[in-house]
């Protein structure tokens, strides 16, 4: 997963070294998922290898590092899993759902508040004055006089 800006401070300084050790040391460049993602991997372990086509999706695998307990601070080896994008997404899925529902609730509250403020503002705003229509030419007294040729019977 890309690191969310608000979570950046939660990652240790040597995070790049840690992930290199996990992904390419322990995992040997291959997804370490053995079914935690909910998929049944033939042979027991995901066959996705970094830089190669994913056996399921066909897209190039970029090995990522998943936090099994979703806590970025927890970089114990047993909490980290070198995982392909697919397994990582699926492992995080439950967690994302919770995060997303919180995000949506916060957004809804913010939108409701904005709506409330907008309504309050609208009540204070006078409707704009309509431009005065130009005076009709016929309103000039001279033009209301009958024309000479209309006078004759
Ligand atoms: Zn995988
Ligand atoms: Zn998996």
Description:
This protein has 153 residues and is mainly alpha-helical. The protein has a domain at 5-92. It is 39% helix and 5% strand. It has four helices and two strands; from the N terminus they run αββααα. The chain has a two-stranded antiparallel ribbon with strand order 1-2. It starts with 14 loop residues before the first helix and ends with a helix. The model is unreliable at 117-123 (pLDDT under 50). The structure holds zinc ion (2 copies).
What oligomeric state best describes the polypeptide chains here? single chain
Largest sheet data: 2 strands, antiparallel
Return the string of H and E elements. Answer: HEEHHH
- The N- and C-terminal alpha carbons lie at a distance of 95 Å
Count of individual beta strands: 2
The ligands found in this model are: zinc ion
Residues in β-strands, percent: 5-15%
- What helical percentage do the residues reach? 25-40%
Given as residue ranges, the uncertain stretches (5+ residues, pLDDT < 50) are 117-123
Radius of gyration: 34 Å
Order of strands side by side in the largest beta sheet?
Answer: 1-2
Shape: elongated
Structural class: mainly alpha
User: Mean of the pLDDT scores?
Assistant: 81
Number of contiguous helices? 4
């Amino acid at each position: 997963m890309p690191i969310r800006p608000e979570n950046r401070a939660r990652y240790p300084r040597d995070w790049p070294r840690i992930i290199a050790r996990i992904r390419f040391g322990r995992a040997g460049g291959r997804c370490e998922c053995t079914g935690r993602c909910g998929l049944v991997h033939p042979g027991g372990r995901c066959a996705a290898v970094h830089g190669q086509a994913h056996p399921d999706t066909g897209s190039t695998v970029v090995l990522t590092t998943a936090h099994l307990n979703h806590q970025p601070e927890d970089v114990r080896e047993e909490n980290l899993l070198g995982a392909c994008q697919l397994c990582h997404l699926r492992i995080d899925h439950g967690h994302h759902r919770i995060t997303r529902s919180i995000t949506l609730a916060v957004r809804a509250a913010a939108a409701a508040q904005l709506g409330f403020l907008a309504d309050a503002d609208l009540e204070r705003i006078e409707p704009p004055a309509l431009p005065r229509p130009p005076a009709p030419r016929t309103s000039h007294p001279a033009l209301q006089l009958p024309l000479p040729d209309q006078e004759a019977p």
